[in-house]
Amino acid sequence: IGYDNQVFQQQQLSTDIEQQGLEDQITLAISHVVAEDTPKGRSLAKFAELVEKYSDNSIQVKISPNGMLYNDHSEVQALIDNKVQMIAPTFSKMTAYEKSWEVLDLPFLFDNEEQVEKVLTSRVGHNLLNMLQQDKMLALGFWQNGFKQMIAQDGLLREPSDFQGLVTRVMPSTVLEEQFNLLKAQPIRASFDEVYNAIDTNSIKAMENTLSNIYSKGFYKKDRHITLSNHGLLGYAVIMNKDFFNRLNSKQQDAIKKAMADATAYNYKNAQRMNELSYQALQNENMHFAELTMTQINHWKTVFSPLYKTYKNSENAYFLRDIQSVLQ
Ligand code: LMR
């Protein structure tokens, strides 16, 4: 094509771009470690859809699931370095950055999902979220997955003594590690993307996780025993790179805030349902299930009581007091 024609095509292209507002288009990259068909995967997809809509497509969202970009070890640093702009790690994984968050890892802190929502949306929830606001991190809110259950290879775990010597995978969290030390198990920290292989090669024999994570990652294929212990919460901190957010125009910032509020409502409504669906799917896989009796729960609680004592003696004790008073 001749020179004039090229110039004309370039001019036409710039006009098209201006008309569509594409010159201002920004990409928001999100990385996460779980499967797409999970409470976190679905909530992020909802958030993405809404951000694009509310920003009139001036923000395009790109989600990379399954730890394909960054895993547990690397995703927070990737966010700080603005290699990705948003992540949603578990509360447990954030305890390394903010010690007060250990309170959310305490076993049997919550009896049900309603209590979780009550606390996370209360003033103490707001205060905990504020603790996470740091130089490069903008904590947008809390999401939930649900309660963790115990899954094991060699039998159903009912009494604390059943854990004796069991090599058990934990997320990077001092409280969770201590929880399994108190059960006299052998906790080992492993990143989520390492778990399948560790189960497959028998390097771990048990773990705690939600039914949606257990089902969507196929952990049940080798570990056939699930104790429906509901002993601990698996929740997420939704975090954005602060510089990225500050550089957006005010309309785009509003789009992010509104999409986050709507996706959070969606998350609270759907997380429990997704775990119920995973429960049905796991039943169809003929897994062995056990529920704990009140007596067994009390045995577990007695074993875990030093965790509460430690937190109560820490400088963050007031978070526990505040949570307990919200729950009264
Ligand atoms: C895990 O590591 O077990 C979970 O944190 C994965 C997740 O993000 O739900």
Automatic annotation (TrEMBL):
Keyword Transport: yes
Keywords assigned: Signal, Transport
A GO CC term assigned to this protein in UniProt: outer membrane-bounded periplasmic space
Record flagged with keyword Transport: yes
GO biological process, alphabetically ordered: transmembrane transport
Source species, domain of life: Bacteria
Family recorded in the similarity comment: Belongs to the bacterial solute-binding protein 7 family.
NCBIfam families xref list: dctP, TRAP_S1
Annotated protein name in UniProt: C4-dicarboxylate ABC transporter
